[in-house]
User: Which sequence fits this backbone?
């Protein structure tokens, strides 16, 4: 039994014929002057509700979410750090939100100057030669990166290079992206301490190698110690190195992908540079390149030109980069997200960048040490944590029937968002835990206490969490039913009443 | 330390718990020659007050112009409640709703969105969003190739009204999988498809039809839909969601309806914002749901039998299926979908109809006022929605520059796209333009053309 009653109406349940938010639409212009054959027969079935009903409905829905603003959210590989309010307030200034993407550049110098400086700052923190801000999320940054690698080989007449090497612990987007770019994926295994198996890498390299996609620190939460050797091997074989920037927060201001000899990198501005995750997006997946890939960057870029001694900013498109892989968005990518990242970087500044990498790493190592001390098993006990680390519950699952899923759901009742579970796939019953630098010691200690409470209940008192959570808006959901009896939209029994369907 | 809460004592205690003498020691697995000391090229930190001043100055430089540009992004009134609610921390700072019990708010919003966008487009199923309209066409085309296995072709034919930038983007994204995007013949008198010049031997995998067209005209979507289906091709509709307050939805095109609809969601409550973030929408006939890219929310029940929402059909997605996924998309444009759902709730069908009808009426007034000027004419015949193509007796770049000097953004230069019209310009007036705005534009253009 659920202990709390939660609001559970659909907006369609509130709909009544003829009700409207009257202030929000223009006066009725009357009959539209278009041939009848183009017009719809019946109005679309949108809800008919008042403005207050809308405000109350979506406010109540928001209260059913966990978020960074309300809860500790140690979701590994997602970098759920505080999203400073100023970034949103300032990005929503009317001069920025009101600007049409095709407005003349003379009417956009404020925005363009900010984007030019963002490109420059991202070059500085990554050690790359140029940056394009157009990819709209990490996966699209990956697509841009692999497309550039392919274009580079093709431009050299090296058209057989179609294999992308990916470690078995990689994010799912890596193999999916390689496939989307018409490449073949070769997976290589991980060694016992979490580093790439160098011998397997050497054996996989050859005349068909286009490149390798790596995350460093890896998805296992450890730094790839032989990265320079990896880079040399791949380059010697004629391949290029792609850096998945999902974990850039770990090394910000400490180590630069360009210095590790990566040829291309994408950054998740919604992770490292603290733009909001928004319940699933928007993100921004800016890409940076070294010398080899400069001609292939996705367009448009922002350029600075001197005019009568004054700096002027303009778009750089096909005419400047004829070998570009092209355009990935209808306009200029997620411009407003990029603006938030710019404001964040200016607030944090040069020294602050470095402290991000340092304190993200301190928090992860502290949490790792406390959980180890509390009896949790680490997946890589001999290693330093990067900005995240992995706990495996394989013993708890075997001896006390406490799986990673159970612990995750039990944590929700303790008011903590769950860590990432069952990823990477190669560690059994794993929790990938990333605290980020913006959390205080007290918060981390509270989380450790909750982990201990749950585990002790299972270990000492035989408590099972198969049916947790109990105190959330819903209990565990029937995913099998969701997939078998597809209910993907509300369908009123009687379209006239707006009453909820009984189904 | 901006956004880092640690006191010196915290840092000391935490290092002691780790057993490290300093924070530097935590990086002892990094090869020492890779560690850097400082970041040249990043300026010193600014306070919120200082960055606030800087950004206000910059925003001021970009503000206060009168815009008559459309071409894929449209200025509409956005109710205050839309972004007041959307930027609530519980929506703004939440992650992807993988932990369903802790994400019912986001999940229900998406379910309600799926209901509304399928109602607008007249199709059965929707995903939770794609990046934008242009990239949605790439995903729709890849989906057509996966689904339409009878067609042996990888050629996608585009009606002449398809946004030319969408073609570029779709080629950049799907070109590496050998998809080819070619335009069908165009009748310069109408700007629409030249049905007489169609090659009946064509056997493309899909035909893409945009309504209203890129130049605002209205295509004979029924005839083209039926022509495509007769050739075994999928029909992909690109539609402007505002227009669906008035126009017949893709699900009702031709005898069988379009198979997939996609487009730019920006007009539904998302600010212009220099081009993004917007969102791409995609709906389809229910039989194709397992080939859709991106996240989908379903309603189900919990252990107590109570209704709840969860991500479903995840076996299509990259985190499960990896190489075999329907797309690599992971992060989408969730917050924009939240805004659009609130917008559609506030407008309702009648509000959306009025926005669409007022935009049509204003554009008609604008075109009448501008074509009354010597040297300004319509480029094509036929009805138009909230955009229209004009010809100019002077080079468009010069005209636009002169208007820009008067803080008027006069439209989108189409001269290079359609050389057959000489100097041409695409103009737009949504419900946000007043009669006074239109008069101001016409007066300024009159001076420019006379000058």
Assistant:
């Amino acid at each position: 039994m659920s202990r709390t009653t939660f609001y559970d109406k659909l907006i369609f349940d509130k709909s009544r014929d003829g009700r409207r938010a009257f202030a929000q639409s223009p006066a009725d212009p009357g009959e539209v002057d278009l041939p009848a054959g183009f017009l719809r027969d019946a109005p679309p079935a949108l809800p008919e509700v008042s403005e207050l009903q809308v405000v109350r409905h979506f406010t109540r829905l928001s209260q059913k979410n966990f978020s960074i603003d309300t809860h500790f959210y140690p979701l590994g590989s997602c970098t759920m750090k505080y999203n400073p309010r100023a970034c949103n307030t300032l990005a929503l200034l009317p001069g920025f939100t009101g600007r049409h993407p095709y407005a003349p550049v003379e009417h956009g110098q404020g925005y363009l100057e900010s984007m030019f400086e963002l490109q420059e700052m991202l070059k500085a923190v990554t050690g790359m030669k140029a940056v394009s801000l157009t990819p709209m999320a990490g996966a699209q940054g990956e697509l841009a990166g692999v497309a550039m690698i392919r274009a580079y080989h093709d431009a050299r007449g090296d058209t057989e290079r179609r294999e992308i090497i990916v470690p078995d612990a990689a994010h799912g987007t890596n193999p999916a992206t390689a496939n989307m770019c018409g490449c073949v994926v070769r997976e290589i295994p991980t060694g016992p301490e979490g580093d790439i198996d160098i011998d397997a890498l050497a054996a996989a390299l050859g005349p068909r190698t286009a490149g390798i996609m790596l995350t460093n620190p890896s998805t296992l939460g450890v730094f790839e110690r032989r990265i320079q050797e990896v880079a040399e091997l791949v380059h010697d074989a004629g391949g290029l190195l792609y850096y998945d920037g999902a974990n850039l927060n770990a090394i910000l201001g400490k180590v630069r992908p360009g210095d590790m000899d990566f040829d291309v990198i994408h950054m998740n501005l919604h992770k490292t540079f603290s733009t909001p995750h928004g319940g699933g997006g928007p993100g921004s997946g800016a890409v940076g390149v070294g010398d080899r890939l400069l001609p292939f960057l996705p367009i448009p870029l922002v350029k600075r030109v001197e005019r009568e001694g004054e700096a002027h900013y303009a778009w750089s498109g096909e005419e400047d980069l004829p070998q570009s892989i092209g355009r990935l968005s209808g306009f200029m990518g997620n411009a407003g997200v990029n603006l938030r990242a710019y404001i964040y970087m200016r607030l944090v500044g040069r020294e602050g960048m470095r402290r991000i990498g340092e304190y993200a790493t301190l928090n992860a190592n502290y949490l790792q040490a406390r959980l180890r001390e509390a009896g949790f098993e680490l997946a890589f006990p001999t290693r330093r944590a990067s900005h995240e680390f992995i706990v495996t519950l394989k013993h708890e699952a075997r001896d006390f029937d406490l799986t990673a899923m159970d612990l995750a759901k039990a944590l929700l009742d303790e008011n903590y968002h769950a860590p990432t579970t069952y990823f990477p796939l190669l560690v059994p019953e794993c929790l990938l835990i990333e605290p980020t630098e913006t959390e205080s010691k007290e918060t981390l200690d509270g989380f450790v206490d909750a982990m201990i409470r749950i585990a002790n209940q299972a270990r000492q008192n035989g408590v099972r969490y198969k049916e947790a959570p109990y105190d959330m808006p819903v209990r565990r959901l029937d995913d099998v039913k969701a997939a078998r009896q597809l209910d993907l939209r509300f369908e009123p029994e009687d379209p006239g009443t707006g009453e909820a369907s009984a189904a | 330390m901006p956004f880092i809460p640690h006191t010196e004592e915290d840092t000391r205690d935490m290092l002691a718990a780790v057993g490290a003498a300093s924070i530097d020691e935590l990086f002892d697995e990094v090869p020492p020659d890779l560690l850097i000391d400082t970041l040249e090229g990043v300026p010193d930190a600014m306070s919120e007050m200082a960055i606030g001043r800087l950004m206000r100055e910059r925003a001021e430089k970009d503000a206060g112009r009168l815009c008559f540009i459309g071409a894929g992004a449209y200025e509409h009134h956005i109710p205050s409640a839309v972004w007041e609610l959307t930027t609530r921390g519980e929506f703004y700072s939440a992650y992807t709703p993988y932990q369903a019990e802790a994400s019912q708010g986001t999940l229900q919003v998406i379910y309600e969105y799926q209901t509304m966008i399928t109602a607008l487009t007249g199709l059965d199923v929707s995903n939770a969003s794609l990046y934008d309209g242009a990239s949605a066409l790439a995903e729709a085309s890849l989906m057509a190739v996966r689904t339409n296995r009878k067609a042996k072709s990888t050629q996608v034919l585009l009606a002449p009204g398809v946004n030319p930038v969408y073609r570029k983007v779709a080629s950049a994204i799907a070109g590496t999988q050998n998809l080819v995007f070619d335009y069908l013949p165009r009748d310069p008198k109408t700007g629409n498809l030249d049905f007489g010049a169609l090659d009946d031997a064509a056997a493309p995998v899909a035909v893409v039809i945009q309504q209203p067209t890129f130049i605002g005209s209205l295509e004979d979507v029924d005839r083209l839909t039926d022509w495509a289906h007769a050739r075994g091709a999928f029909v992909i509709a690109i539609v402007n969601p505002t227009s669906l307050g008035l126009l017949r939805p893709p699900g009702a095109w031709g005898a069988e309806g379009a198979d997939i609809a996609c487009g730019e969601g920006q007009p539904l409550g998302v600010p212009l914002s220099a081009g993004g973030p917007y969102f791409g929408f995609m709906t389809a006939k229910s039989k194709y749901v397992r080939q859709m890219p991106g996240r989908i929310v379903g309603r189900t029940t919990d252990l107590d039998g109570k209704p709840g929402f969860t991500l479903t059909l995840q076996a299509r997605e990259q985190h499960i299926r990896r190489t075999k996924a329907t797309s690599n998309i992971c992060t989408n444009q969730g917050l924009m979908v939240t805004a659009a759902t609130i917008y559609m709730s506030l407008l309702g069908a009648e509000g959306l109809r009025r926005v669409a009808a007022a935009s049509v009426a204003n554009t008609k007034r604008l075109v009448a006022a501008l074509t009354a000027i010597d040297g300004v004419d319509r480029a094509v015949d036929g009805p138009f929605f909230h955009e229209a193509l004009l010809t100019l007796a002077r080079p468009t770049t010069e005209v636009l520059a002169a208007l820009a000097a008067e803080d008027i953004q006069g439209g989108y230069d189409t001269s290079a796209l359609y050389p057959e019209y000489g100097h041409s310009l695409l103009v737009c007036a949504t419900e946000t333009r007043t009669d006074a705005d239109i008069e101001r534009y016409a007066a300024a253009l009159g001076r420019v053309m006379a000058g």
Observations:
- Chain B has a mean pLDDT of 97.
- The domain at 349-450 of chain B is CATH 3.90.1150.10 (Aspartate Aminotransferase, domain 1).
